[in-house]
Amino acid sequence: MPSSDSLQLAAAWYRMLTPEQQARVERDVSMHQVAAGTIVERKGEPAQCWIGVLSGLIKVSVGNADGKLASLTGVPAGGWIGEGTLLKREIRKYDVVALRDSVVARLPAPTFEWLLDTSIAFNRFLLDQLNERVAQFIGKAENDRLLDPDARVARCLAELFNPLLYPGMGMRLAITQEELGYLARVSRQRANQALRTLEQAGLLQAEYGAVRVLDLEGLKRYGQ
Fold first, then answer.
1. Is 140 helix (H, G, I), strand (E, B) or coil?
2. pLDDT tens, 106-133?
């Protein structure tokens, strides 16, 4: 059975629930260790759970029959994804893939719907999350069309440090240049160059296998 401590640390919404609701979540949620490259949820399959990242990093991506792939967003520890698909009760329209070794939680759809029926706080959390997610994807569409690679990397990092979508993760994220390149849709070499540029601008500190953000607002505005 999953521990309440792990949910307390990685699920802001869990802390809003009553003891009865927390007990059912602990009973129903499952946790899985997944290796880097593992497909956590597959496009085209019915959505049967809400997906949380307790540790590690996953990406949401789409592809076509020609083998072309596009990363839509990354989800670090503390993030939950897939509520829109559950609310619409449709098949999943994207793949969820582990970018690094991760621990993933799955909350079954019936428990998710029960929380909707019984918790005003949970509904408010979802409303805020959906609103923030819409703003994120609108911004990403704009960034991909108008910004140079340095600015795209800056905005990509800013997304991963979004305090509403990924609360409590601090200002340091374990991420490699290759992983960042996947999410920003640039090469590893170009991601490395962008990190050096952003570091010289005083916005972040690049560490081995990690990034420490020094100026989140500066990353959000970079390239304007």
1. helix
2. 999 999 999 999 999 999 999 999 998 8
